[in-house]
Design brief:
Elements (H helix, E strand, L loop, with lengths): L15 H14 L5 H4 L2 H7 L5 H16 L3 H10 L8 H6 L3 H16 L13 H10 L2 H10 L1 H13 L5 H9 L6 H13 L30
Length: 226
C-alpha cells in the first residue's frame, strides 16, 4: 500500500503542563499494550480530559477504539514491528539500519546524559515512548530539540500509521499537534522519506523489545527493562 502524504497539522497552543500531560499520555499509549499498560488507560483518559479539544479528541478516539479492539497487542506488533515506515525509533527514518544510525543514537544518549536522565538495559534511546517520557518528566527543552531534529520522521510515521488504518494514528497526530509548525525544509525531507523509505544497509542494529511501563512521577533516573 502506498503511504499517503498527509498535510502538516496546525499546532495547538499548550502550556508546559499541558504539553507534559500530552507527552506522558502518548508515551503510555504508544507502549506495547501489555496487561500492565492497558490497566493505565483509564488514568490516561482522566489525565487528558483537561487538554485542548483537538488533542483531547485524538486521545479519546484512540482509547474508544482500543476498548473494543479484538486484539490490540497483535495489531500493535503488526503495525510497529512489521512495517518499516511505522517504526517507533526516530533515527530509523533518516539512517535506517546503516552505520550512520549509531552516531545518531549516541546523540540521544548524550542529550539524556546532559539532563541527568539515564536509559538503561535494553531499550534504544530513540524509541519514541522514551523520548516522550523524557519530555514529560525530564528536560522538555532538550526533548523538544530531539523531536524537532527528527520531525520529518514523525511526519512519515504519522502518514504511514494513518495509511494502514490504525487507531494509533491518532496518538501520533496528537503528539504532532503539540509541536512547532513544520518548516519548508522539514516538509521537503519528509516528502523524500515518504517516497524512498528508510535506508537499508544492514549492520546488525535491531529494534529492542517494548518499553516496560513507567510509574508516573519520580526521579529523573529511569531504568528501562525488557
Amino acid at each position: 500500500m502506498k503511504t499517503p502524504v498527509l498535510a502538516p497539522v496546525v499546532p495547538v497552543r499548550l502550556d508546559a503542563h499541558g504539553r507534559a500531560v500530552a507527552h506522558m499520555a502518548a508515551s503510555i499509549l504508544l507502549d506495547y499494550p501489555s496487561a500492565d499498560v492497558l490497566a493505565r488507560y483509564d488514568d490516561v483518559r482522566a489525565a487528558v480530559g483537561a487538554l485542548p479539544g483537538a488533542v483531547r479528541m485524538r486521545f479519546e478516539r484512540f482509547l474508544d477504539a482500543a476498548a473494543v479492539h479484538p486484539d490490540l497487542p497483535a495489531h500493535y506488533v503488526a503495525t510497529f514491528d512489521l512495517k518499516r515506515k511505522c517504526a517507533l525509533y526516530l533515527t530509523y527514518f533518516g539512517a535506517g539500519d546503516t552505520r550512520r544510525r549509531g552516531m545518531s543514537l549516541v546523540a540521544f544518549v548524550e542529550a539524556y546524559r546532559a539532563a541527568g536522565w539515564v536509559v538503561e538495559d535494553g531499550e534504544l534511546p530513540d524509541y519514541l515512548p522514551v523520548v516522550l517520557e523524557f519530555s514529560a518528566r525530564g528536560d522538555a527543552t532538550i526533548a523538544g530539540g530531539l523531536l524537532a531534529t527528527h520531525r520529518q520522521g514523525l511526519e512519515v510515521l504519522r502518514s504511514a500509521v494513518a495509511g494502514v488504518g490504525s487507531p494509533y494514528a491518532d496518538i501520533i497526530e496528537a503528539v504532532c499537534l503539540t509541536l512547532p509548525p513544520v518548516d519548508a525544509e522539514t516538509e521537503r525531507r519528509y516528502l523524500e522519506l515518504i517516497s524512498a523509505g528508510p535506508p537499508t544497509e544492514m549492520v546488525g542494529l535491531s529494534a529492542m523489545g517494548p518499553l516496560e511501563p513507567f510509574a508516573p512521577g519520580g526521579a529523573q533516573d529511569v531504568e528501562v527493562r525488557r
